[in-house]
Amino acid sequence: MMAHLIDGKEISLQIKEELKQKAIEYKERGIEVTLAVIQVGNDPASSVYVGNKKKACEFVGIRSLAYELPEETTQEELIALVKELNERADVNGILVQLPLPSHINEDFVIKTIAPEKDVDGFHPQSVGALSIGQKGFVSCTPAGIIELLKRSNIEIAGKECVVVGRSNIVGKPMALLMLRENATVTVCHSRTKDLKEVTKRADILIVALGKPRFITSEYVKDGAVVIDVGIHRDENNKLCGDVDFADVEGKVEAITPVPGGVGPMTIAMLMNNCMEAIV
Ligand SMILES: NC(=O)C1=CN([C@@H]2O[C@H](COP(=O)(O)OP(=O)(O)OC[C@H]3O[C@@H](n4cnc5c(N)ncnc54)[C@H](OP(=O)(O)O)[C@@H]3O)[C@@H](O)[C@H]2O)C=CC1
Ligand SMILES: Nc1nc(=O)c2c([nH]1)NC[C@@H]1CN(c3ccc(C(=O)N[C@@H](CCC(=O)O)C(=O)O)cc3)C=[N+]21
């Protein structure tokens, strides 16, 4: 069987084109959408994502402010910057790149961001709103996956969906969104007994466990749809996901590649959230 390749790069481009039109309309009304991105230290992987976000902002027509703070920045200094950006009327979205250095408490920083500027959807108020079906920003990676499925005409309602991983930024919000779309949802984690048996039930398998090429064909049902969130560099410095693409591809109905799958959608949804930050 030839698997359908879900082209996240192409779909994200489509979304960014739509947002570009919206940005033009805002500009005509005198509104310049502005995203502030804060990075503490210079983790090379984070720098790649921050660079991609900047490029996407330029494409869409969103003004981006980059704050590159040294590794030694104190929690107090970071909090002071977030509070200053909260107050600024010309800043619509605030993103603090994670992970933060270990001397800074991430939860504390996240809860300082004004919920109406929380374009990452990480603030407890945004997460709470999602869990009870109220309006609020939704974490970009899971939101992007829903968009990928919808724009690929993959039906969600009534499907058996298994999410591997329960992190606050991917697994948990992903499960909540699939539930909202009326899938039957199972969430797996490191204490799941017999992971293979569970993942093999999935019509839609979403993998965010953070281990390169961990999911092989034995974990996957024939004809399933597989979404790979993981992103790693292998021994040969090549990008790969949590799914062993070459092994799984022949067995499935549709699959996302890495790169070019979920990653570009994360960025497109961030751009979307920035536009929605305009009241
Ligand atoms: N493309 C994109 O836009 C993004 C990609 N990523 C990538 O996605 C991956 C996951 O990220 P994130 O959610 O932040 O990762 P975390 O490390 O925060 O979470 C990993 C989750 O997987 C579970 N897990 C780990 N090992 C196993 C195992 N052997 N069997 C079953 N479950 C397991 C953990 O379980 P437990 O809770 O029990 O520890 C945990 O819930 C990473 O590769 C990351 O780089 C992340 C964000 C965005
Ligand atoms: N506050 C915060 N918000 C985040 O959304 C956030 C974060 N911190 N920390 C790190 C993770 C990871 N993440 C990615 C974004 C884009 C790609 C991406 O653009 N990927 C491309 C290219 C990858 C490459 O060339 O390295 C692709 O998969 O095709 C990947 C991963 C956002 N994250």
TrEMBL record:
<dbReference type="InterPro" id="IPR000672">
    <property type="entry name" value="THF_DH/CycHdrlase"/>
</dbReference>
<dbReference type="GO" id="GO:0004477">
    <property type="term" value="F:methenyltetrahydrofolate cyclohydrolase activity"/>
</dbReference>
<feature type="binding site">
    <location>
        <begin position="165"/>
        <end position="167"/>
    </location>
    <ligand>
        <name>NADP(+)</name>
    </ligand>
</feature>
<keyword id="KW-0658">Purine biosynthesis</keyword>
<feature type="binding site">
    <location>
        <position position="231"/>
    </location>
    <ligand>
        <name>NADP(+)</name>
    </ligand>
</feature>
<dbReference type="GO" id="GO:0006164">
    <property type="term" value="P:purine nucleotide biosynthetic process"/>
</dbReference>
<feature type="domain" description="Tetrahydrofolate dehydrogenase/cyclohydrolase catalytic">
    <location>
        <begin position="6"/>
        <end position="120"/>
    </location>
</feature>
<comment type="pathway">
    <text>One-carbon metabolism; tetrahydrofolate interconversion.</text>
</comment>
<dbReference type="InterPro" id="IPR020867">
    <property type="entry name" value="THF_DH/CycHdrlase_CS"/>
</dbReference>
<dbReference type="InterPro" id="IPR036291">
    <property type="entry name" value="NAD(P)-bd_dom_sf"/>
</dbReference>
<keyword id="KW-0378">Hydrolase</keyword>
<protein>
    <recommendedName>
        <fullName>Bifunctional protein FolD</fullName>
        <ecNumber>1.5.1.5</ecNumber>
        <ecNumber>3.5.4.9</ecNumber>
    </recommendedName>
</protein>
<dbReference type="GO" id="GO:0009086">
    <property type="term" value="P:methionine biosynthetic process"/>
</dbReference>
<dbReference type="InterPro" id="IPR020631">
    <property type="entry name" value="THF_DH/CycHdrlase_NAD-bd_dom"/>
</dbReference>
<keyword id="KW-0560">Oxidoreductase</keyword>
<comment type="function">
    <text>Catalyzes the oxidation of 5,10-methylenetetrahydrofolate to 5,10-methenyltetrahydrofolate and then the hydrolysis of 5,10-methenyltetrahydrofolate to 10-formyltetrahydrofolate.</text>
</comment>
<feature type="domain" description="Tetrahydrofolate dehydrogenase/cyclohydrolase NAD(P)-binding">
    <location>
        <begin position="139"/>
        <end position="277"/>
    </location>
</feature>
<keyword id="KW-0368">Histidine biosynthesis</keyword>
<dbReference type="Pfam" id="PF02882">
    <property type="entry name" value="THF_DHG_CYH_C"/>
</dbReference>
<dbReference type="Pfam" id="PF00763">
    <property type="entry name" value="THF_DHG_CYH"/>
</dbReference>
<comment type="subunit">
    <text>Homodimer.</text>
</comment>
<dbReference type="GO" id="GO:0004488">
    <property type="term" value="F:methylenetetrahydrofolate dehydrogenase (NADP+) activity"/>
</dbReference>
<keyword id="KW-0511">Multifunctional enzyme</keyword>
<dbReference type="GO" id="GO:0035999">
    <property type="term" value="P:tetrahydrofolate interconversion"/>
</dbReference>
<dbReference type="GO" id="GO:0005829">
    <property type="term" value="C:cytosol"/>
</dbReference>
<dbReference type="InterPro" id="IPR046346">
    <property type="entry name" value="Aminoacid_DH-like_N_sf"/>
</dbReference>
<keyword id="KW-0554">One-carbon metabolism</keyword>
<dbReference type="InterPro" id="IPR020630">
    <property type="entry name" value="THF_DH/CycHdrlase_cat_dom"/>
</dbReference>
<keyword id="KW-0028">Amino-acid biosynthesis</keyword>
<dbReference type="GO" id="GO:0000105">
    <property type="term" value="P:L-histidine biosynthetic process"/>
</dbReference>
<keyword id="KW-0486">Methionine biosynthesis</keyword>
<comment type="similarity">
    <text>Belongs to the tetrahydrofolate dehydrogenase/cyclohydrolase family.</text>
</comment>
<keyword id="KW-0521">NADP</keyword>
